[in-house]
Automatic annotation (TrEMBL):
<protein>
    <submittedName>
        <fullName>Sugar phosphate isomerase/epimerase family protein</fullName>
    </submittedName>
</protein>
<keyword id="KW-0413">Isomerase</keyword>
<dbReference type="InterPro" id="IPR050312">
    <property type="entry name" value="IolE/XylAMocC-like"/>
</dbReference>
<dbReference type="InterPro" id="IPR013022">
    <property type="entry name" value="Xyl_isomerase-like_TIM-brl"/>
</dbReference>
<dbReference type="GO" id="GO:0016853">
    <property type="term" value="F:isomerase activity"/>
</dbReference>
<dbReference type="InterPro" id="IPR036237">
    <property type="entry name" value="Xyl_isomerase-like_sf"/>
</dbReference>
<dbReference type="Pfam" id="PF01261">
    <property type="entry name" value="AP_endonuc_2"/>
</dbReference>
<feature type="domain" description="Xylose isomerase-like TIM barrel">
    <location>
        <begin position="19"/>
        <end position="287"/>
    </location>
</feature>
Length: 289
């Protein structure tokens, strides 16, 4: 059985209380944002890192991944990339120290044309991060959603290592690109190192750049995405089983490709996150019995 994780930040309790609640809810592991505040690598001394790792272990949990999503325009803006790449490397270092090999992120929408200057800028950034991640035996994992699985695979195939891989989120695909998550697993099977379990529905077609940001568009923020998923005109995030992700086929296809990693619950909307996440764990376990 795949282990079940919880995005600690989805519980909206802070890190320590969120960790305790994740254990109470029956999770095997947790994913934690590590971009600002107490989890910013710059704010964690070596002693604090060891203490946090020991505390998580004392709860009987492990870290499925860190989230290193720096928002904005991802890695599309060459003038901002040096700072973002440096911070991403420090988040990768932190991940390895805390006992996980995965840092998930959004990199921005990958342009269709490989000779687009934005494509070339993103490629250079991901090449550098992929080589660095590989040197740590770790992965910088791009979250699915902003582009089709086929186009993302083409981008990943063009990099020199698999140090940049995939955090597979089926709901993002359903809600934004209209891509089929089951076929997406098959397409991206060589790159999937972490997954999110989330559901949703597409209400009407939307340009992914309106959702995930792009140069010339609003920068991406998770607050805006959550607001759009609650009341926007294009898509809705829904409780597991209420949207258009075919979870019976989805989980079976993950098994078929031999995926052994985490199924991590992310809940970006709703007024009762603890209740929703408890229901999500029960939902997943129905498919594991």
């Amino acid at each position: 059985m795949n282990p079940i994780g919880i995005m600690v930040d989805s519980l909206r309790l802070g890190v320590r209380d969120g960790l305790k609640k994740a254990k109470e809810l029956g999770a095997d592991g947790v994913q934690i944002y590590a971009v600002s505040g107490e989890m910013d690598p710059a704010n964690l001394s070596s002693g604090a890192r060891k203490e946090l790792k020991d505390y998580i272990a004392s709860l009987g949990l492990e870290i499925s991944a860190l989230c290193g999503d720096l928002g904005g325009h991802g890695f599309q803006d060459a003038s901002a990339n040096a700072e973002k790449i440096e911070k991403s490397k420090r988040i990768l270092d932190l991940a390895v120290e805390l006992g996980t090999k995965v840092v998930t992120t959004h990199i921005g929408v990958v342009p269709e044309q490989t000779n687009d200057p934005i494509y070339e800028t993103m490629h250079r950034a991901c090449e550098e991060l992929g080589v660095y991640a590989k040197s740590l035996d770790a992965y910088f994992a791009i979250e699915t959603g902003p582009e089709t699985a086929a186009h993302l695979k083409s981008f990943l195939d063009s990099l020199s290592t698999n140090g940049v891989s995939v955090n597979f989120d089926p709901a993002n695909m359903v809600m934004v690109t209209g891509d089929d998550p089951v076929q997406g697993i098959i397409t991206l099977k060589d790159y999937i190192v972490h997954t999110h379990v989330k559901d949703g529905v597409r209400l009407r077609q939307v340009d992914p750049r309106e959702v995930y940001g792009s140069l010339g568009y609003k920068p991406m923020s998770h607050e805006q995405i959550a607001e759009a998923a609650t009341s926007g005109p294009y898509y809705r995030e829904l409780a597991l089983g209420e949207g258009h992700v075919d979870f019976a086929r989805y989980f079976q296809t993950l098994r078929d490709i031999g995926y052994k990693g985490y199924l991590t619950i992310e809940r970006e909307v709703g007024e009762q996150p603890e209740k929703d996440i408890a229901s999500a764990i029960a939902f997943i376990r129905k498919y594991q019995s």
